[in-house]
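Following up on my earlier thread - several people asked me to post the actual chain instead of describing it. Fair enough. Here it is, all 282 residues.
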Amino acid sequence: MTTNTITPGPASRLWMAVPAVSFGGIGIGLLLMEVVEFSYGFWAGIAGCVIASCLLFYQAYSKPRRDLVSLFTPLYAVLIFLLPNEVGSMVIVQVVFAATISLLSVRVEKLFNVKKTEKKTMKQMLNEYIMRIEPLLSRVDEETGHLVAQALLRFKFGLYESATDNCNKALDRLKAIEPYPGVLERALLILRERASGLAISRVVTYPEHVFTEEDSEYLAIHLPENLIDDPATLDLDNTLILLYAVGIETSPLDEQALEEHQRFIIQILESYKEKLAKAAAT
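Reply from S.P.:
Thanks for posting it. Predicted structure:
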């Protein structure tokens, strides 16, 4: 599963200069030839087409996506108008060329002003999250990381009493960490409370322990209130993702086991795909 990101390029009115310069040059050339009777007036049309082709090149080059046809229009202009031939001096050829590059200019503005859809997998999202909370992870020692990883794995396997015991041991070790990782403490308390309830087949509807606003920078899933169906479930899901990140980054002993169960964490992220997309769009 992936999330899509579309990034528009900067708004530009350069496309209007292409028809203005090309047809303007042709118009000036016609005036010079018909009114002033200047026999070399057609060079004004040639100059307009060549300059406009260069403007189109710049327009196409500056877009997030590149249109190869538009990028080569200066070369076409040189071949048609600047190399020795009689074709370039013909007004009808200039008009057709001006019309063509004008259409290309509109096409570039409409179709190439948006980056290709970037697809970000949930695994990439997880890796980016782990990198984002690296300052927190760097403070966790290997033994604490091992207890965190074991608490997560035993919770997943339904060994709730054992998961609770590992949470307690990990919480004791947090006291020696400076600065104190409050978000990790709350994650362990959330997991312990849920595991304790499940151990006696009790569903925790109104949990005592929740994440606070100051924890948001360390959480993987951020949603506005109108998209949160069950705050307790969201807290638990953020807890599982956070504990996974702590375990896999700080406990080499559990790295392989956690990698084998990475799909479990990916599925949690995937379950929020639509809501994350809605949140990003607002």
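The longest helix spans residues 91-111. That should answer part of your original question.
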